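Action item from last meeting closed. Structure (235 res):
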């Protein structure tokens, strides 16, 4: 059992739950907002659309402006890709970070992704500054952090991303007042399916992704421990 990895998961969860309003984690929140809006952008591209811009603001709000054929299927995919994109990103990061010693590669890939967003989609000064700053920070971490610390950093970011997706769903979708103007409200106006239905669906998927990521990560650790024990067993 790797107590450092488990401790990092617990720490990320504690920081997210207890210190949610702390200014210390504010940059991480902006990073996940970028993940959220990038999810919309990637989904729009997948359905054959074009991206005009990605914008985030100091209040942790975000907007992806895109053009695509507004069919029921396209609207569902693009509008769902923000919250669920963050959840999927966090789940994949957690599985990769827990099962493979690829912390530096993960941090480097995140930096490269942000540079792509910066080059093609970021438009406002605040968005450009945050995207560039996070890309530099992650790039430096990928290059200079020791492998173990890079892996733990990747785990922390993954867990925080998953938690942010869940908290975002809770704050934005489960309050009728705040739900107005969110992805769920936009999708409801396009599909005539009530926004609360999308809130229930997205929340259920996000929780399932969190559970699946934790299960696969734990399964990977147990398999690795068994393999290591078999190598050490005398023949």
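Sequence:
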């Amino acid at each position: 059992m790797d107590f450092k990895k488990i401790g990092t998961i617990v720490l990320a969860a504690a920081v997210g739950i207890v210190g949610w309003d702390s200014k210390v984690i504010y940059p991480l929140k902006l990073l996940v907002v970028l993940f959220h809006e990038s999810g919309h952008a990637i989904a729009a591209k997948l359905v054959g659309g074009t991206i005009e811009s990605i914008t985030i603001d100091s209040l942790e709000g975000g907007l992806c402006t895109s053009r695509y054929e507004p069919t029921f299927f396209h609207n569902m995919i693009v509008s769902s890709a923000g919250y669920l994109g963050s959840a999927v990103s966090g789940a994949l990061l957690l599985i990769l970070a827990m099962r493979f010693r690829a912390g530096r590669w993960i941090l480097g890939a995140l930096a490269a992704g942000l540079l792509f967003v910066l080059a093609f989609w970021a438009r406002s000064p605040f968005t450009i500054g945050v995207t560039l700053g996070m890309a530099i920070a992650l790039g430096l971490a990928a290059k200079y952090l020791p492998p173990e610390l890079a892996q733990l950093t990747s785990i922390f970011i993954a867990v925080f991303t998953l938690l942010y997706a869940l908290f975002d769903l809770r704050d934005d979708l489960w309050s009728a007042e705040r739900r107005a103007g969110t992805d769920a409200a936009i999708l409801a106006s396009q599909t005539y399916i009530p926004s609360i239905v999308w809130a229930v669906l997205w929340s259920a998927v996000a929780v399932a992704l969190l559970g699946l990521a934790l299960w696969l990560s734990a399964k990977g650790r147990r398999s690795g421990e068994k393999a290591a024990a078999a190598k050490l067993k005398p023949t």
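Note appended to the action item: The beta strands are 50-56, 62-67.
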